[in-house]
Write a structure and sequence with these properties.
Its EC number is 1.5.1.3. The chain is of the alpha/beta class and 326 residues long. The chain is built from 13 helices and eleven strands. It has two domains: 8-36 and 43-88 and 98-130 and 185-325, 3-Layer(aba) Sandwich (Dihydrofolate Reductase, subunit A), CATH 3.40.430.10; 131-183. It is 36% helix and 21% strand. The longest helix has 28 residues, at 135-162. It is globular. Mean pLDDT is 82; it is low at 1-18 and 77-91. The protein binds NADP nicotinamide-adenine-dinucleotide phosphate.
Length: 326
């Protein structure tokens, strides 16, 4: 039998994937006991992420700030070192200034963002929808132009007050700019579009693509983790905010000590109807996932402090976990 010769398409897609930055899923989860499992079974809980089209828990300032900073900050670039070597020395400061991250989300997650934060500023927003009429694209582009006009107005006001000229005031008006928005019909199509819309390095002032974050919701996390067209041969990371309700008995916390072992096993803190597609059972399978320590996540993934121990914020306690697909 002749040896298996991969088709040009296979070679191309494997090579292309090796050159791409990893996909980073960023998610907040809380464990919810699995109603399908018999009560006596040791089945691990599911990871709740949403309820009734919104987040199951009250606003968590520390996590929202963490999400905004991590997804907005361009490098330290989450890139395979082979690519950096191929491309020569590290990007110059000028190039770094033109790098923008992408945040990919399902249409329902996009709609769940408060109108004034939509599209998420200073990031390329990619919305995934099956809509074939163009209505979602028109709406999202319209919202981008509204947000851009507000931004230009604010810059003009600021420069009028300070008397300083700003670069934005010289920019063409929002109508003439290409929106930093993509609407795609699937996650593979979104990744393809990103790759073809943005060069991997900034040249002649053109904007280039930094890191790619998948920000939800359940359907899009499922595409990322379960669709072989997306995940095969591609580095994948998960930055997970693990979240519990703050225990009523606050004595230990008052002393600055959270009862880690109790929190570890706490479930059903919030009502959830949307779930992360995989649970602890899969994440703890060392042949598939590697748990990445907080120092590595901080230093190599996000470039800022990460809390791996429980930390209280209002009604909840959170910690950040990192996982990398093996
Ligand atoms: N905890 C967290 O970190 C977190 C993060 C994000 C979201 N959430 C929560 O998650 C919930 C939303 O998640 P969800 O699963 O319901 O919705 P979603 O994944 O945000 O969006 C689903 C929509 O995406 C489009 N879509 C999904 N799969 C597609 C595919 N294969 N091809 C083309 N289009 C596709 C469809 O849009 P059309 O209907 O337009 O065709 C679909 O209705 C909300 O409660 C939200 O608050 C939580």
């Amino acid at each position: 039998m002749p040896p298996h010769i991969p088709s040009p398409t296979t070679i191309h897609s494997a090579a292309t994937k090796a050159l791409l930055p990893p996909l980073t899923l960023i998610v907040a989860t809380t464990p919810i006991s699995n109603p399908a499992a018999p009560p006596s079974s040791s089945s691990t809980p599911r990871l709740g992420i949403g309820n009734a089209g919104t987040l199951p828990w009250p606003r968590i300032k520390s996590d929202m700030r963490f999400f905004a900073r991590v997804t907005t900050r361009s490098p330290p670039r989450i890139f395979p070192s082979s690519l950096q070597q191929q491309q020569g020395a590290a990007a110059t400061e000028e190039e770094e200034g033109n790098v923008m991250n992408a945040v990919i989300m399902g249409r329902k997650t996009y709609d769940s963002l408060p109108a004034k934060f939509r599209p998420l500023p200073r990031r390329v927003n990619v919305v995934i929808s099956r809509d074939t009429t163009g209505a979602v694209r028109r709406r999202v582009e319209g919202e981008w132009r509204d947000a851009r006009r507000r931004e230009i107005e604010m810059e003009k006001e600021k420069s009028a007050t300070s008397g300083a000229a700003t670069s934005t005031t010289e920019d063409p008006e929002a109508e003439e700019e290409d929106p930093a928005i993509l609407v795609s019909s699937s996650l593979p199509a979104a990744l393809h579009a990103l790759q073809h819309t943005f060069p991997s390095r900034s040249r002649n002032g053109r904007r280039s693509l930094g890191n790619i974050f998948i920000i939800g919701g359940g359907e899009i996390y499922a595409s990322a983790l379960l669709d072989p067209n997306v995940s095969l041969g591609r580095a994948m990371r998960i930055i997970m905010t693990d979240l519990r309700r703050r225990p009523a008995d606050d004595d230990a916390q008052k002393k600055g000590v959270l009862v880690a072992s109790e929190l570890e096993h706490a479930v059903d803190a919030f009502e959830c109807d949307t779930f992360f597609p995989i649970g602890y059972e899969e994440l703890e399978n060392r042949r598939e996932w590697r748990r990445v320590g907080e120092e590595e996540v901080a230093r190599e993934w996000v470039g800022e402090e990460v809390w791996g121990e429980w930390k209280a914020d209002g009604e909840v306690v959170t910690r950040i976990l990192g996982f990398e697909r093996v």
